[in-house]
Specification:
Blueprint (H helix, E strand, L loop, with lengths): L3 H11 L22 H11 L12 H18 L3 E5 L2 H20 L5 E5 L4 H10 L2 E5 L10 H7 L4 E7 L11 H10 L3 E5 L4 H12 L22 E5 L11 E5 L2 H4 L4 E3 L7 E3 L9 H37 L4 E3 L7 E6 L10 H9 L6 E3 L8 E5 L7 H21 L6 H8 L8 H10 L13 H9 L2 H15 L3
Parallel strand pairs: 2-3, 2-4, 4-5, 5-6
Antiparallel strand pairs: 1-7, 6-7, 8-9, 10-11, 11-13, 12-13
Helix pairs in contact: 2-10, 3-10, 4-5, 6-7, 8-10, 10-12, 11-12, 11-15
């Protein structure tokens, strides 16, 4: 049997995707820019493709690999125990589940609450819905986009199972005041989780670069954020982000193994084999684990420090360059590897619609992720900066293309949403929408019955952000559901 037609079909399908190498897709993917790393990861993944991490007594190799990864992470970020997971969402889910079980078993909490900043990742809201916690969302400071410790403290009650802060928050790239938040949680006997999925590996190694003399001047100041901070009880850190491993690799670290055990599931009350699950998965593929181990072993601490330093300097240069582009502004001074770029309302000339900018620069081969209005946060563009972007030529090219895209967006003008649509949408009950009303709402957003999305997404995003949030959440599954048709 020849595999050529099969692989050819896969290559054809991949041709329509965003590129995952080269640094031009500035969300979702992470590229080290190092030659040979992908081949190493693929070979390690293939070597363990048939291994099942469900039973570590049958496959002791998974224990050794996981212990090695956790040991590296705790040496960098503190803590005394950890679990390898399939990604950031699973790490966050397990952090919440562990906290719920801990609150139930040690404090008798039966109606648990989850206290978090309104900039916390959606994964925590997903966890609350799945595991039956009530979310207490705390607004952030509209000037800094960081949560205020006093506001967190006021939200903590006897029912609070977990307090969540970010290092950094995905939307704005800023680091919440972790020491103060953790102290408030500890004062009330509550667990505190730091979501460092995107920032932990990067910030930890950037800190190591500073401490190791990697900066002769302009050394960055990195706030305290990890498990060495008193009161921090767990931390999530993704390896498939700034450890540049293959997808499907994250770690959930705990202050100790005693806390970790509350999130594990064990069952022997059935006629089959005794079950112990450290994650939400039963069958647990070992390929991503082996690939992550191989990549981290290959790059090493010094290699990661060098990559983090390169990213830091690229973020600095991009931030300075963006501030020189007429019509754009940074929402916040970046404290990690993420940038949030909004329209500058004080700029001279025609209004700039950042959603139109995103469409324009995508036509030039770059993907900047649109982020709709939320509270005090205006519509903006998200940029994840990886080591593949971190050279003077690439940074200069991106800034030049961004400036051109702003010029074209200014000439095209902003997308205008009919006020009548907004008024009509406000009268709809998301929980009682009829199929006919769904069809009308999606048509207004530019989504046809065939499920195809338009090439230019600015009109769709403009309509969606004008809708009441609950209505938007009701319609989004309808949009995605139409893409998955047999």
């Amino acid at each position: 049997m020849t595999t050529d037609p099969i692989l050819s079909r896969l290559a054809t399908l991949r041709a329509s995707d965003l590129p995952v190498r080269g640094g031009r897709t500035m969300a979702y993917v992470y590229d080290s820019g190092l030659d040979g790393l992908e081949e190493l990861a693929n070979a390690a993944h293939a070597a363990f493709a048939g291994v099942n991490g469900l039973d570590m007594t049958a496959f002791p190799s998974v224990v050794e690999l996981e212990n090695d990864l956790v040991r590296r992470a705790t040496a960098l970020l503190g803590g005394g125990a950890g679990t390898f997971t399939s990604g950031g969402t699973e790490s966050c889910l397990l952090a919440v589940l562990t906290a719920r079980q801990h609150a139930r078993r040690t404090r008798g909490v039966t109606d648990p609450e989850l206290v978090l900043a309104d900039t916390a990742h959606a994964a925590f809201h997903k966890a609350a819905e799945l595991f039956g916690l009530r979310v207490v969302s705390v607004p952030v400071d509209p000037a800094t986009f960081k949560v205020r410790p006093a506001d967190l403290a006021a939200a903590i009650t006897d029912r609070t199972a977990l307090v969540v802060v970010s290092a950094p928050s995905y939307a704005h790239g800023v680091i919440d005041p972790v020491p103060e938040a953790a102290a408030e949680a500890a004062r009330r006997g509550v667990l505190c989780h730091v979501d460092a999925c995107i920032g932990g590996w990067y910030l930890g190694h950037l800190r190591a670069a500073v401490q190791g003399g990697g900066f002769t001047q302009d050394a960055p100041e990195i706030p305290e954020f990890d498990l060495s901070v008193p009161g921090v009880t767990s931390l999530s850190v993704d390896l498939h982000k700034y450890a540049y491993t293959a997808k499907g690799a994250s770690l959930l670290l705990f202050r100790d193994a005693e806390l970790r055990r509350h999130g594990w599931f064990a069952h022997s009350s059935w006629p089959g084999y005794p079950v112990v699950n450290s994650t939400l998965q039963g069958t647990k593929p070992a390929g991503p684990l082996a690939a992550a181990w191989a990549v981290t072993e290959h790059i090493g601490a010094e290699g990661y420090a060098a990559l983090s330093t390169r990213v830091h300097r690229a973020v600095r240069d991009l931030a300075e360059g963006i501030e020189r582009i007429d019509g754009l502004r940074l929402l916040a001074r970046p404290e990690a590897s993420l940038l949030a770029v909004a329209a500058d309302d004080d700029a001279e000339g025609a209004e700039v619609d950042v959603f139109v900018v995103a469409d324009e620069i995508r036509g030039s081969g770059w993907y900047l992720q649109p982020q709709p209005v939320f509270g005090a946060s205006p519509a903006n563009l998200h940029l994840t900066v990886t080591a593949a972007v971190a050279d003077e030529e690439t940074v200069g090219l991106l800034l030049a293309e961004l400036e051109k895209a702003v010029g074209r967006a200014r000439a095209a003008g902003p997308v205008r949403v009919d006020p009548a649509i907004v008024e009509a949408a406000a009268a709809l009950d998301p929980d009682a929408l009829t199929p006919e009303e769904v069809e009308v709402a999606l048509a207004l957003a530019g989504v046809g019955a065939d499920g195809r999305l338009p090439e230019r997404m600015a009109p769709v995003l403009a309509v969606l952000q004008a809708l009441p949030p609950k209505l938007g959440e009701r319609l989004l599954p309808e949009v995605i559901g139409r893409l998955y048709q047999p």
